[in-house]
Design brief:
alpha/beta; Purple Acid Phosphatase, chain A, domain 2; 6-stranded mixed sheet; 19 strands
């Protein structure tokens, strides 16, 4: 791995490109004492070692990171965002949107699905116009390319906005887990990386890091037009709190990295336990239609929506529709090559897979 210093012809601004042909993990970007640190795990003569480069924080806007993909030799470039601000909670219904979840570090599956559905091209550029891409949590932990996948989403946000579109990254339980130090499901590759970097895994995503700061701007629930998006679901315990989506996000956001569970507000234990929006699995219990119609009606009424979209629970090999078209589950076995998403276009909802073939879903929009 080497650093190349280039000179911009138009503006004469020095740009530092971190080129990592032998990079096997990274980069991780952190800030300490007015210095910016770029950390990678590289392979040299069959051995993995940590490489740390540093520069003054004042150079931040002149840095471009080269990130590996699942295709050997194919990379993409990331430049840092000018600012990181908390995401809005409520959005109007776009003309088209693609909805998926639970990619868990599966860069190849994510790339192929977005290319097949017309969101990105072969060069990983946004071609979805003013469409919205909704990612309903769990893009970390089990897979082999977690870091690369996070940087790709980070970069894709700016490309989407430039075209009039939007990327929504709604956090799932696994994003909360890595920020709070619960590493039960972290791929062993990253445990090796933390040993080489001499840090705990959660430190790679803490408030001193670029990815950690970025994740802390994300929501756990969003309302987009007639739909509510959460990773797990909305339980009756959450309904009884009588909170708006914005109030839920404002309450939970300061505690993403909390591991002590000593919450100052009595509503927080409900939002962070198994009944919370990123853990709840009750929609898909045995005979759910016998016990849940009232609960789902209360949720739809409270949030003034028609549908609830979830991930979190694999209940079928394909996108599945539950509770008379009111609940749509997007968690499918991506790791087995069975990737699908929901496409909303021209007022109709479809399930769509890596071949691009569409199948209309029994979801009413009237």
């Amino acid at each position: 791995m080497k650093q190349i210093r280039l000179l911009s012809v138009l503006f004469f601004i020095p740009v530092v490109l971190t080129v990592g042909e032998n990079t096997v993990d990274g980069p991780y970007v952190s800030y300490h004492n007015e210095q910016l640190f770029i950390k990678n795990i590289i392979e040299v003569n069959g051995s993995k070692i940590a490489r740390v480069d540093s520069m003054p924080i004042s150079s931040r806007n002149n840095v471009a990171l080269t990130i590996n993909t699942d295709i050997p030799g194919k990379t993409f470039i990331v430049t840092f965002k000018n600012e990181l601000v908390n995401e809005p909670t409520v959005f109007p219904l776009p003309e088209k949107q693609l909805i998926l979840s639970d990619m868990e570090g599966n860069f190849a599956g994510f790339r192929k699905l977005l290319q097949a559905t017309g969101v990105i091209d072969d060069n990983l550029n946004w071609i979805f116009g003013n469409g919205h891409l909704v990612l309903s949590g769990d893009f970390v932990d089990r897979g082999q390319q977690v870091t690369e996948l996070l940087w790709f989403i980070y970069a894709l946000e700016d490309k989407a906005k430039a075209a009039g579109g939007y990327v929504h990254y709604i956090l799932g339980n696994h994003e909360i887990m890595i920020m709070s130090g619960d590493t039960r499901y972290v791929n062993k590759k990253y445990k090796e990386s933390t040993g080489l970097l001499n840090v705990k895994y959660e430190q790679l995503f803490d408030e001193h890091t670029e990815l950690g700061r970025w994740l802390r701007t994300k929501n756990v629930i969003e309302k987009i037009g007639e739909n509510i998006f959460v990773h797990g679901g909305i339980s009756d315990a959450v309904n009884k709190l009588r909170l708006s989506p914005g109030e839920i996000n404002n309450l939970v956001k300061p505690f993403y990295s909390d591991s002590l569970y000593t919450y100052p507000d009595k509503k927080l234990p409900v939002l962070y336990n198994d009944d919370g929006p990123f853990w709840y699995r009750g929609y898909y219990k045995p005979d759910p239609d016998k016990i849940l119609p009232g609960q789902i009606h209360r949720t739809l009424s409270r949030f003034s929506v028609r549908h609830i979209f979830t991930g979190h629970s694999i209940v079928a090999d394909t996108i599945s529709v539950w509770h008379h078209g009111k609940v749509i589950n997007t968690d499918v076995p991506h790791a087995e090559g069975k990737s699908e998403a929901v496409l909303y276009s021209n007022g109709i909802y479809y399930r769509i897979g890596a071949t691009g073939e569409r199948f209309q879903l029994p979801v009413s929009t009237r």
